[in-house]
Amino acid sequence: MSPNISSAKGLSQGADVNKQSSDGITALHHAAFKGHLDVIKYLRSQGGDVNKQSNNGLTTLHVAAFSGHLDVTKYIIRHGAAEVNKEDKDGETALHQAAFNGHLDVTKYLLSQGGDVKKESNIGFTALHGASQNGHLDVTKYLINQGVDMNSGVNNGRTALHLAAQVGHLDVTKYLLSQGAEVGHLDVTNYLLSQGAEVNKEGNDGSTALHLAAQNGHLDIIKYLLSQGADVNKQSNDGITALHHAAFNGHLDVIKYLTSQGGDVNKQSNNGLTTLHVAAFSGHLDVIKYLTSQGGDVNKQSNNGLTTLHVAAREGHLDVTKYLLSQGAEVNKEDNDGETALHLASKKGHLDVTKYLFSQGANMNNGAIKVPLAENTEDPTLSILKLFT
Q1: What are the angstrom distances between the C-alpha of 378 and each of 195, 354, 375, 385?
Q2: CA 182 – CA 172 distance, rounded (Å)
Q3: How far is CA 294 from the centre of its chain?
Q4: Which of 1-10, 26-35, 281-290, 315-324 has the weakest average pLDDT?
Q5: Angle at the Cα of 279 (from 366 to 320), degrees rounded to 5?
Q6: Which of 68, 93, 206, 246 is 20 to 30 A from 350 in CA distance terms?
Q7: Which superfamily, per CATH, for 265-389?
Q8: pTM, 2 dp
Q9: CA atoms in the 13 A half-sphere facing the CB of 13
Q10: Domain 1-116 CATH class label
Q11: Cβ distance 310 to 335 under 8 Å?
Q12: What are the ranges of the ANK repeats (predicted)?
């Protein structure tokens, strides 16, 4: 008798084999993750439910497929797995888990048992999207040979090719192109462009390769894309530029290069947000210092009247608040609701920022309303900034 099965028998004497942890995990989940088939057989003989779902909706089958245990996967399906296409809370099936993690044998078996290769997760991911994004060439080839549409896009419009190229899986990218995929790392970018890909091609959200490279801080790709004619001030459907992405994520080297190539630091999104607004939201003081040195307007207002100071105070960034005031930010500037930076800081309970604003002449009775007590209400305009995350 193996130590694993011996332990399982000892624990199951009078115990509830389907007892769940705070995460909803059962003993069967643990055994499936480790690949202990003998334990799984015993627990099932004691009434273990292979279809029991964790808090995230994972069944024993999901876990076995994720870990690549083919023998466990086969046993679960043959002995009680209700649905091979059962979804977890993210809309993912066991096939998603197997393909995402490169388990070709499990992927093949699940398909032979009725696994839906076209099944989409909540964000539109299929097994192919996951295999391509994670660089699993063998799984990618197999799925395409099974008739999967390689040009189908996830919810943001990106295809398996976009996902593979963005992460830098050159072998998967080349294969997808060789199979007729419609047209990161520099070699992938170079390869795509050499195959006729349009440098300013937009996704469904209006983003280009330059937006993605700036978001992820890939300076070498940015230099190459610009040398090939990428539009440095190209705006997405929301009016976001590559500079906005770089500023939000704090990529100072990227920001310096983009501005040297004509990037407009005061370019506003559809909501009127500049690079200074988004840098202030994230608290990137070094970025803010550079942007102001390049002509960034600290008093530029968004469509709702927010200045960079409003944003910094609202998010509790004292160092940014101090710097902006030293650069001429208007301490009593009101937004469209008549609120100042002081109003926003106090609403969020940022005592240090509130005190500093008072010391710099902030008027607590300025505007149409008085400074409120701290609260946790979310401003709709500020929530727009969180789209960058």
Answers
A1: 46, 18, 9, 12
A2: 14
A3: 30
A4: 1-10
A5: 55
A6: 246
A7: Ankyrin repeat-containing domain (1.25.40.20)
A8: 0.62
A9: 5
A10: mainly alpha
A11: yes
A12: 23-55, 56-81, 90-122, 123-155, 156-188, 205-237, 238-270, 271-303, 304-336, 337-365
CB 382 within 8 A of CB 281: yes
Q: Is residue 10 scored above 60 in pLDDT? A: no
Give yes or no for a contact between 65 and 73, defined as CB atoms under 8 angstroms apart. Answer: yes
H or E element: which one contains 315? helix 308-315
Contact call for residues 115 and 94 (beta carbons, < 8 A): yes
Domains 1-116 and 265-389 agree in fold: yes
Helical segments of 207-333, H only:
209-216, 219-227, 242-249, 252-260, 275-282, 285-293, 308-315, 318-326
Whether the predicted pLDDT of 97 surpasses 50: yes
Q: Indicate the domain borders of the chain.
A: 1-116, 265-389
Q: CB–CB of 69/100 below 8 Å?
A: no
Amino acid code (one letter) for 77: I
Query: Residue 238 half-sphere exposure, CB side, CA atoms within 13 Å?
Result: 18
For 243-258, letters b (16+ CB in 10 Å) and e give bbbbbbbbbbebbbbb
Tokens of 359: 């010391």
CB 103 within 8 A of CB 138: no
90 has pLDDT over 80: yes
